[in-house]
Amino acid sequence: MGSPGLERARAKMAAAGVDETAIEVFAHYYRLLEHGETGLIPESSIDPIDMESLADVEVADEVAAEAIGTTVVIKLNGGLGTSMGMDRAKSLLCVRRGLSFLDIIARQVLHVREKYGVTLPLLFMDSFRTSADTMAALARYDTLPVDGLPLEFLQSKEPKLLEKDLSPVLHVKNPDLEWCPPGHGDLYPSLRSTGVLDQLIAAGYTQAFVSNSDNLGAVPDPRVAGWFAQSGAPFAIEAVRRTASDRKGGHFARRKNDGRIVLRETAQTPPKDLAALADLERHRYCSTNNLWFDLRAMKEALDARDGVLGLPMIRNVKNVDPGDPSTPKVIQIETAMGAAIEVFAESRLIEVGRDRFVPVKTTNDLLVLRSDVYDLGQDFVMDQASDALPYVDLDTSHYKLVGDFDKRFPEGAPSLRKATSLKVNGDWTFGAGVKVLGEVELDKGPTAQRIAPGTVLSDD
């Protein structure tokens, strides 16, 4: 028997129809939490790591073509974009020419299928909050589903736990707020418990390429598929060099006690080690969250552990209602899918170009993506058209939420192709055809201000 809090959580999950494996995974982490586990990775326990670069790897055309022919693409699509004020799938956001993230992802995959003559199944891991909207949006692509395979599978859900006593929280006004997704590390047990992993193996697929749906740089690339196939590795992650904007993010390292690669997230870093986390010379690589794994190797690992891979726990403290700081503090138990790299002794890392890492986490990122910094090619790949990505910092009081952001760019994004940085303080609305050159900072005024159509903003 477990503690009363765990038993209540188990009963709640069972009553909601949560899969038994998912309940056991949750129970595993609950016990760790109960015994004071923090999931922290001290700097003293790791060493910096280096890796090979895709630019230096030789992959024969026939190897690349064969590898992409046995690859399945999985997109993580459980996020609502609540930090940007959204209440539906974040991937429904418009990116360019009336096309959403979902539209562009679907067209990227259809293009690769046609070019290489491959099946290349596309699956979405949706949450209970994103499934309906996502499937409705994809219904227009009638050739997207692959016979015998689902277009989506659902990640699990788990109860939020009151920080004070680890009991499942109650929220009478909105019971949905009692639940949270268990982080994208739930990918693996969900693939197993839904039967999708077995379906893919039975259909002859050998490897999976997984990425976030908000990263349009994560195109299924035959060359990367070929590299992974010929490496013989069971698991691999694409990495990029960290920049100043990545100082607060996670990084790769090598664990001292067993030599395995680990992915340390900010939430897993002790406060005294935050300076080391931000040291771009010491820890030079961060994750794109584009990962590859051998389907059979993953099945064997999951079966051997009864579905519980035992990924490092992330203890996330939030409010029951994320939009209301007066509501009680809760703990959300999460895991990161990239942390599975430490499960496999022969895991690999590969440095890729920044073009494979175009995440949209804030409206700052969204403005760059919508601007002329990127061209949308015939292959639906977002091609960087500028020499470097501009730094954008929009006043969160007026631009943080998508609705407010859109009101201030009613004619679309300004030209940022020749911009170095754009900092907006205060409330500014941009007219059509505005161009930003070099470093530009707009100062806050006593009232809302407007930039006339065709204005050229420069650092002169």
Keywords for this entry:
three-stranded antiparallel sheet, UDP N-Acetylglucosamine Acyltransferase, domain 1, globular, eight-stranded mixed sheet, Spore Coat Polysaccharide Biosynthesis Protein SpsA, Chain A, single chain, 460 residues, 2 domains, 25% helix, 13 helices, alpha/beta
CATH class type of the largest domain: Alpha Beta
Q: Give the low-confidence spans.
A: none
Strand order of the largest sheet: 2-18-12-15-11-3-6-7
Mind describing the biggest β-sheet? Answer: 8 strands, mixed
Strand-residue proportion:
15-25%
Number of strands: 27
Tell me the radius of gyration.
22 Å
What is the name of the CATH topology of the largest domain? Spore Coat Polysaccharide Biosynthesis Protein SpsA, Chain A
Terminal Cα span? 71 Å
**Range of helix content:** 25-40%
Number of helices: 13
Write up what this structure looks like.
By secondary structure, the chain is of the alpha/beta class. The protein has two domains: 4-356, Spore Coat Polysaccharide Biosynthesis Protein SpsA, Chain A (Alpha-Beta Complex); 363-457, 3 Solenoid (UDP N-Acetylglucosamine Acyltransferase, domain 1). Helix content is 25%, strand content 24%. The chain is built from 13 helices and 27 strands. The protein has helices at 4-15, 20-34, 61-68, 101-116, 131-138, 187-193, 196-202, 222-231, 274-277, 295-304, 363-370, 396-399, 402-408; strands at 46-47, 52-53, 71-77, 94-96, 99-100, 122-126, 152-154, 158-159, 161-162, 179-180, 207-212, 235-241, 251-255, 261-264, 285-294, 314-319, 329-334, 348-351, 374-376, 382-384, 391-394, 419-424, 428-430, 435-436, 438-442, 449-451, 456-457. The strands form nine sheets. Strands 2-18-12-15-11-3-6-7 form an eight-stranded mixed sheet, with helices on both faces. A hairpin with a 5-residue loop joins strand 19 (374-376) and strand 20 (382-384). Helix 1 runs antiparallel to helix 2 (20-34). The longest helix has 16 residues, at 101-116. The model has no long low-confidence stretch (mean pLDDT 94).
